[in-house]
């Protein structure tokens, strides 16, 4: 009754998990390009302006050393620009190379014959390594991630550097309680942030304001200097937001001190704000770089656990199949220690047809086996002729007469 | 894919910063030339500078212009990516039922690394994971984490017994290495002999297979460490004979026939190649088979599956994902998510090698048997689910839906698949 179907491999739809693989380097390339553009624009403008003023002053006065100095400065500036562009050019080459490696890696999938092709298995193992590295990076285990990538030789297929940079900023918020790194990041990604309508920069500025106010209150007697600074900060960065409810709350901070414990001010003063900022930064970063919000490993595993899980995997009764009591079978991966607990909460797979071994027979204890497997097991353990043992019970377990074994019909 | 590759190659070969960098260099050259001129004759300063304006501006404009191909190249590549992934949305957090158990995932990864033999990565990972324990991030709408915290605690306080597991897998790789690379059976045989009883209970013939291979090895002239001994062609069979006499005793009961065959081969020792026993002695895949069978037994005795569950599950997940995403789109309209259901609503086609358990689907109700609704066998030998049995019988004698026989529901017997 066992159905023999080998599902086909549809390479196109199989790429669902692999979009970020190409998206991230693409976003990085765009970032590199924009940086180049920015440097060039700014320095060109500066250069031409300096040249003009130098020309003007050279005609009026004749202080030759000043002119030469100005020219030297311009040359130095251009050399600086060139160096910066060269660094970007190196990045660009690196990114293009890794993009090419990734495309070639995905291309391999299109050349695989089917799911039972050995090459699919190889490919899938590389994919697992990629997913693991992605998971490790997201969990902040960058050393392990780099180590695994190096050991598997897949450095070009994973984005250790991008994640390490992201993680540094996240930690500066969560643990260092500093906004400067994150603000610098915002400045570099201004356009992108505007496009997705992110509130990250505003929230960072708000936090700066909160910290100024806190400092103002904590300075004993408070001459108001810090608080004045806070007010200026708010005027400069916050007043433009138009969120008057929030601005009202912010203004209230000036009146309520952190230790007064009055809501909603207490929660604005709370250190959990930093966790919130760190989380907000991560989600903003991931959106901007087209990274999925959760590790891909989670996504693949949840789906896989469900697809493999059967009601027997968490049954209170020992099933006749699946357990490795007989050496012909391997332990089911969901029953295996690694995944058993994880799979407890996911739904089990849907089946519309029974799938049992050929020619099933039932033992007096209710366990059903394929008669061939039962027979070969009993031969191997050397059960006496005319008797049968249950593989679950083992060679020392209960035995029955062969005549007590009944045929069972499973439709 | 070809389209994408062409676009990247284009970026790599032509649409890059090289041109712009050269333009900037030209500007530097212009500036340097002007400086040299002014340094030589300071009177020319105003004129030189005035003359510099135009060319310098041009050079910088050219530099900006040379950025354009990159811009358009990136644009085209971006479009090609969009096209490639048009109907493949990024998986969202809704498909993630696991964020509430980061400890369990970490443990699974640690075990995966160990069983793959990546011991140094595993120790880096365990060290880092213990230094920064993960925070659970439960996904809304997924079931509450099942808390049997023993494992989570073990991971958290660092007592997750990776050491023991690592030792075990180190042993496994040591034995496998000896088997595969050195053709040395001794460590494997020692391992199997220690667990002789356990293996026998499982109906495993690993120990015999190993000893048989050892016999064959000796016969064709390897010594017990796997080295070829070429001194004398008769030495091999003699050694094998001695080995058989000392080691095959315990196998006489269960493997009498196989032992007889090996002994029979002795008669052909000058020319086994042409004898009916050739297949035992010149079988290249025998080593790989024995190594695989050893791996399976080794893992099974640890209660683990032979291939990494993480690998199998991630692969099955990738196969299942297209179907599940399609399903998710349909279910979104009904405002439910599949992770909240007991059973997936659709069948996922997996290769047959991914079936590990027998499946019983009640032919009446079309539901799978569970602990609450077990499979019941009627006296006639047909099997239906408990609930179907109750419905059909209403507690009284009833006719089997598949044959003419009648029975009472209390005569039905619970069966296990």
From TrEMBL, chain A:
Residues 332-393 form the RING-Gid-type domain. It comes from the Eukaryota. Signal peptide: none annotated. A zinc finger (RING-Gid-type) spans 332-393. Its main location: cytoplasm. Keywords: Cytoplasm, Metal-binding, Zinc, Zinc-finger. One of its GO terms (biological process) is proteasome-mediated ubiquitin-dependent protein catabolic process. One of its GO terms (cellular component) is GID complex. Coiled coil: none annotated. It is found in: Cytoplasm. GO terms for molecular function: ubiquitin protein ligase activity; zinc ion binding. Pfam families: CTLH. Residues 177-220 form the CTLH domain. Involved in the proteasome-dependent degradation of fructose-1,6-bisphosphatase. Belongs to the FYV10 family. This is Protein FYV10. It comes from Lojkania enalia.
UniProtKB/TrEMBL annotation, chain B:
InterPro entries: CRA_dom, CTLH/CRA, CTLH_C, Fyv10_fam, LisH, Rmd5_dRing, ZF_RING_GID, Znf-RING_euk. It is found in: Cytoplasm. SUPFAM superfamilies: RING/U-box. Residues 168-226 form the CTLH domain. Transmembrane segments: none annotated. PROSITE patterns: CTLH, LISH, ZF_RING_GID. A zinc finger (RING-Gid-type) spans 362-403. The keyword Transmembrane helix does not apply. SMART domains: CRA. It holds the Pfam family CTLH. Residues 362-403 form the RING-Gid-type domain. GO terms for biological process: proteasome-mediated ubiquitin-dependent protein catabolic process. One of its GO terms (molecular function) is ubiquitin protein ligase activity. Keywords: Cytoplasm, Metal-binding, Zinc, Zinc-finger. It comes from the Eukaryota. The keyword tRNA-binding does not apply. GO terms for cellular component: cytoplasm; GID complex; nucleus. Involved in the proteasome-dependent degradation of fructose-1,6-bisphosphatase. Belongs to the RMD5/GID2 family. This is GID complex catalytic subunit 2. It comes from Lojkania enalia.
């Amino acid at each position: 009754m066992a159905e023999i179907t080998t599902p086909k491999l549809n390479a196109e739809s199989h790429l669902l998990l692999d979009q970020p693989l190409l998206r991230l380097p693409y976003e990085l390339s765009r970032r590199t390009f924009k940086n180049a553009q920015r440097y060039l624009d700014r320095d060109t403008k500066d250069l031409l302006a300096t040249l003009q003023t130098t020309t003007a002053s050279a005609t009026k006065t004749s202080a030759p050393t000043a002119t030469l100095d100005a020219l030297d400065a311009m040359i130095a500036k251009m050399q600086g620009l060139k160096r910066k562009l060269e660094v970007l050019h190196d990045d660009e080459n690196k990114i293009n190379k890794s993009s090419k490696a990734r495309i070639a890696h995905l291309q391999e999938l299109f050349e695989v014959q089917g799911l039972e092709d050995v090459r699919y298995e190889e490919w899938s193992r590389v994919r697992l390594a990629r997913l693991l590295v992605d998971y490790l990076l997201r969990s902040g285990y960058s050393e392990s991630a780099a180590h695994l990538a190096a050991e598997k030789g897949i450095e070009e297929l994973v984005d250790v550097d991008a994640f390490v940079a992201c993680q540094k900023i996240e930690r500066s918020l969560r643990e260092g309680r500093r906004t400067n790194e994150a603000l610098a990041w915002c400045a570099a990604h201004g356009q992108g942030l505007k496009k997705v309508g992110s509130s990250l920069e505003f929230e960072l500025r708000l936090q700066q304001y909160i910290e100024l106010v806190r400092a103002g209150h904590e300075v004993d007697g408070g001459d108001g200097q810090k608080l004045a600074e806070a007010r200026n900060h708010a005027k400069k960065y916050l007043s433009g937001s138009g969120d008057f409810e929030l601005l009202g709350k912010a203004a209230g901070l000036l009146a309520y001190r952190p230790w007064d414990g009055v809501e909603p001010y207490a929660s604005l003063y709370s250190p959990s704000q930093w966790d919130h900022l760190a989380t907000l930064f991560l989600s903003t970063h991931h959106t901007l770089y087209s990274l999925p919000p959760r590790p891909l490993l989670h996504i693949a595993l949840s789906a896989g656990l469900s697809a493999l899980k059967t009601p027997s995997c968490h049954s209170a009764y020992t099933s006749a199949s699946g357990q490795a009591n007989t050496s012909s079978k391997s332990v089911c991966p969901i029953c295996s220690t690694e995944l058993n607990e994880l799979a407890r909460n996911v739904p089990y797979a849907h089946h519309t047809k029974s799938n049992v071994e050929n020619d099933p027979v039932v033992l007096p204890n209710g366990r059903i086996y394929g008669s061939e497997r039962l027979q070969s097991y009993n031969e191997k353990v050397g059960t006496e002729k005319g008797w049968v043992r249950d593989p679950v019970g083992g060679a020392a377990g209960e035995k029955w007469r062969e005549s007590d074994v009944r045929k069972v019909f499973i439709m | 894919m070809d389209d994408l590759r062409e676009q990247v190659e284009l970026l790599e070969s032509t649409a890059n910063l090289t041109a712009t960098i050269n333009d900037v260099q030209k500007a530097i050259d212009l500036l340097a030339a002007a400086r040299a001129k002014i340094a030589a004759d300071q009177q020319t300063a105003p004129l030189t500078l005035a003359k510099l304006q135009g060319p310098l501006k041009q050079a910088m404009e050219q530099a900006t212009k040379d950025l354009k191909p990159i811009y358009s190249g990136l644009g085209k590549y971006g479009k090609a990516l969009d096209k490639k992934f048009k109907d493949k949305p990024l998986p969202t957090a809704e498909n993630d039922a696991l964020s509430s158990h980061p400890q369990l995932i970490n443990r699974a990864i640690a075990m995966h690394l160990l069983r793959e033999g990546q011991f140094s990565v595993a120790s880096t990972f365990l060290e880092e994971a213990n230094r920064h324990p993960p925070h659970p991030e439960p996904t809304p709408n997924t079931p509450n984490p099942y808390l049997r915290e023993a494992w989570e605690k073990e991971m958290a306080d660092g007592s997750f017994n990776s050491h023991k597991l690592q030792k075990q897998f180190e042993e496994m790789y040591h034995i496998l290495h000896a088997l595969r690379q050195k053709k040395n059976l001794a460590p494997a045989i020692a391992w199997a002999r220690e667990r002789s009883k356990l293996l026998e209970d499982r109906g495993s013939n690993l120990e015999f297979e190993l000893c048989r291979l050892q016999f064959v090895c000796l016969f064709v002239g390897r010594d017990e460490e796997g080295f070829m001994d070429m001194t004398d062609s008769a030495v091999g069979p003699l050694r094998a004979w001695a080995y058989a006499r000392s080691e095959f005793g315990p196998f006489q009961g269960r493997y009498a026939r196989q032992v007889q065959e090996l002994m029979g081969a002795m008669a052909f020792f000058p020319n086994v190649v042409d004898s009916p026993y050739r297949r035992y002695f010149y079988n290249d895949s025998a080593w790989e088979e024995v190594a695989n069978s050893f791996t399976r037994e080794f893992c099974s005795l640890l209660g683990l599956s032979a291939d990494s569950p993480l690998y199998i599950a991630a692969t099955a997940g990738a196969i299942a994902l297209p179907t599940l995403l399609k399903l998710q789109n349909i279910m979104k309209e009904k405002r439910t998510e599949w992770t909240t259901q007991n059973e997936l609503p659709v069948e996922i086609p997996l290769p047959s090698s991914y079936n590990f358990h027998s499946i019983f689907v009640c032919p009446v109700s079309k539901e799978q048997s569970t602990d609450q609704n077990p499979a019941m066998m009627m006296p006639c030998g047909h099997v239906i689910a408990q609930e179907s049995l109750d419905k059909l019988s209403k507690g009284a004698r009833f006719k089997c839906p598949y044959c003419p026989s009648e029975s009472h529901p209390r005569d039905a017997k619970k069966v296990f698949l």
